[in-house]
User: What shape does this take?
Amino acid sequence: METPSHPASAGKAHYAEPTPNILNVFFHGLFVFIDRPSGIDVLLPEVPDHSYRAGSFLGETQIVQPTDPVSQPLVLTGVQTGCAHLPEDRNLVVDGAEPDDQATPNDLHAVLWVPLPDKIVAADTVSIAGDLDNASAFSKATLACYLHVFQYRFFGSADTVLLRGHRFLPSLETIDGIQYMSLHIFSEEDTRLGSGHPITGFDRAVDLLPSLRGKVHLTRSTTSPGPSARVSGTIPAEYEDLQIRTEERLRLIGSAMRQGDWPRIRRVEVDRGTSVSTCTAIVSKFTSENP
Assistant: This one.
């Protein structure tokens, strides 16, 4: 029997490339980014009255401080490595600076390591031109970014994306068949603090870099807004400051539970990472307005 001939391509299955999903990682507040060829070290300075949280939008939980933050970093896994680096025209950049490898929990709350993303967006910036007493320490010193968004591709379900100790859930945004997820990381105050707080925070961040320690200072705490940007797959509320979100959530809880158990509510909020002083102040305000 003659065996029929087939084209060389016959029998070879052709599969469409899977569509990647997108993870948007929001960095809210004060961070020191060490931009390296293979990834980015993210340092969270230990600052009085700062709240440290990570997780999916509205589901963030407290970042528990490791006993040795330098040797126990939180690592982001499950995403594809990109090639984007921090935009130098939107950040204070110090060439060649290395972090203090002897930093203690009094100086450093935690360290994160993330792969290079596909894209980095400076979502919200402030103008600091003229607000530093030694601006020459930085390669550029006109803008500082207080809300970065790192964008990554990932394949599979949300369960493949992990940051030690924190869970993420898919967001509700699906655009052109792409599922968008958001991971929010906070290193900022959750209540309105005194006018000197930005200066304190800046000093604590600079102290993590021995080559800058004591050599540069922020001269005033009021700044002017700089350029802003937004990314696909997100909603406006994701860009809000933590202090605004915390106050709104506690007021909503209070309105729904006028006769509720405030001590229990406060315990829940503290477990989520809300500072005790914030909970106490807002609860006192609400109960005085709603006897």
User: Anything to note?
Assistant: Residues 11 and 246 are 59 Å apart (CA to CA). Residues 1-10 have pLDDT under 50 and may be disordered. Residues 242-289 form one domain. The longest strand covers residues 143-154.
